[in-house]
Amino acid sequence: MNLLTQVLHIVGSGASAYITARNLRDTQTRPNLLAGFQLAESGSVPFLEKLRDRAFAEGDTWLAEQLGRHANDEKRHGQIFAQALKRHDKQVIDFKQQAQQQDKQDKKERQRSPFFDAYFKDYSAEQLKAENIDWIVFMGSTYILELDASKDFVRMANVLPDDDLVTASTKKGILSVAQDETRHAAYLLEALHRRLTPAEVANIIDEWRSRKVDALLAMVSNFVERQGQMRSLVQDAAPSETNNETELTELTAA
């Protein structure tokens, strides 16, 4: 990674960290951020499960087992963030019902992601499907995302105070997610080394690090253009009467 990329990485990561930390610290914006994490973590499960099945079919049992565990982790992460939302008496909105009330063009506009548009620039949607994606592309791109997420989640958790049950429980859950992301990054790096030489691995990591820098800058630029306004992902939920601490302990111990 050259000096310019390193500088831009610091700038982009710093801006992104500031935005997410601010949104998590603010009780008004925290539920929307938690909902975004719930959707992202849960939404990756079908993709990972298809990759697991593909790896089994191709005879790579080790990779298939790693992907299976990864998918199970993401399911649990979605539940952790869903519980965090319940503590704020919120839940993710019903997108199916909402979609019926809006035309396809609006829906397409809402689903655009400046971050992923930039991160996977020059790759078509067809190329990125689980049945088609090049294994090296998957491993390299996901390694960077998981590695950075493991650090980002720790930073975000540390902005939450420990002096009340709601934030303390949310913090504990986020730190548990961070530990899993660290393990995911480790197996993806090992997977790269199983297929490539050290020099080739370094080149792949540099490529996806550079793409991540471009993606972060695109995301921050979009955030500025929208003047910090984010589409709402949550709706009110009935107050929870469950023992959240017990549920969280079960999930983080899974």
Automatic annotation (TrEMBL):
Region spans: Disordered: 235-254
Official protein name in the record: Rubrerythrin family protein
Superkingdom as given in the UniProt entry: Bacteria
UniProt biased composition (Low complexity): 241-254
InterPro entries: Ferritin-like_SF
